[in-house]
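name: query_chain
kind: protein
chains: 1
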Amino acid sequence: MDNQRRRLLQMLFVGGSAMALGACGGSTRTPGTPEQTATTPPTNTPPTPASPEALAIQLPLQQGPLMGIGALQDSGVDGVLIPPEFDIRRVAISGLTASTVLPLPSLGLITYPWHTFPDGGAVFDLDDGGWIYVSNSETMLTGGVGALRFDRDGAITDSYPILSGTRRNCAGGPTPWQTWLSCEEVEDGKVYECDPLGTPDTAQELPALGIFNHEAVAVDLETRTLFLTEDAGDGRLYRFRSSGMAPSINGEPGLDMQNGTLEVLEIQGFESGNYQEDLNEARKVARVTWVPVVSPERAQSEVRSEIQMATGMGAPGTIFKGGEGIWIQEIPREQQQRVSGTQHPLRAVVYFACKGDNRVYAVDVDNDLIEVVFDNDQLMAPDIPFDDVDNLTVSPMGDIIVSEDGDAMRLMVMNPNGPSKILLQVPGGGSELTGPAFTRNGQYLYFSSQRGNALGSGIPGLGITYELEVPERFR
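structure:
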């Protein structure tokens, strides 16, 4: 029945040419040419069991050193609570320039006012020892992305826009070739590639990555794929398989993001708009396949509605309720372990959060496996459960950091399948914590209180961006 349903949908909406792709799935690895085999091993998909039941195993996931932090204490900055030995400072306040925030004589004149409602962000290291923090603006009218540039000593030397004229830029993700992918969180939203050293004029629209309520994106260069979340109650997890390599907007070799195949993930037994309601099953490892997106050039919310009305059946893809942050953790070769019953060691893990059910999922990229590694019913979080999991990042040390879109206002260190810890907390509520991102050496973590106000805790504002310094023994 499931195969018949899929064939019917493909005939109705994408034509017979897509039917050959309907059976695609298995490993994300792509057979390489002789020039590619060093980075793209040949495919070796393990046999798929007849039964779709979850496997009685767990992925061998790891935790980082930040699980060893102590109890929080008042930092003296806006009442933010941080662990002992850590330091924190403001680096930008919405509507004010960076020089207003840090009035240092060496800064010179900085004219770009920091944008309102700062959201997803990332850090890019520079050849001179400095770095850049980029941050989205989740406003409907202006959107865009701003950048803060730091020198090797951590002083802010510049602030400027790198994208403008977009809408509700929520999260996104960095690329291995040092550009920023900024996502629009609207029903007809797109992804834009931005150069951290560029201007709004150098940014490029990427419609091939889909038209939907975009949230975040993560890149796996080895398999030439991008993974994308959708912030909708009936959202999907998407995968874009690039057609190959192409020059990026910054002149570096990157993936061709204008040409490729957009797909949705299906957990076996929960295809075509079904949802894993049973947490006991969701916590077990399950096999997944990838199915081509129906009419990828159109808004996916409209396509799903049309499919439901025309056929009475759900569109391809397992439902993930309110997809949020996503990040890829690449495991060093010497630490890679083989998962029982699979062909490939655990090389790369895609973590993504869903605020609709407060779940964090882990996807084994090469073996096409998935499991829930955090949910509130497991009572893993301290004090109170996670309060709308949102942005997510993985530190260079392997720590999984999840921010909250709720009044608890915490950054959490998530321990897969184990007790979590609070990294920091901003009191007062009325906002959300966004954009967590580390420098490459793990010394600094940047994040924002999206509607924070420099006038005081609990007073609505337009946003504050902070820098948390991590002690050396936790790096």
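note: Helices lie at 2-13, 98-101, 279-282, 300-311.
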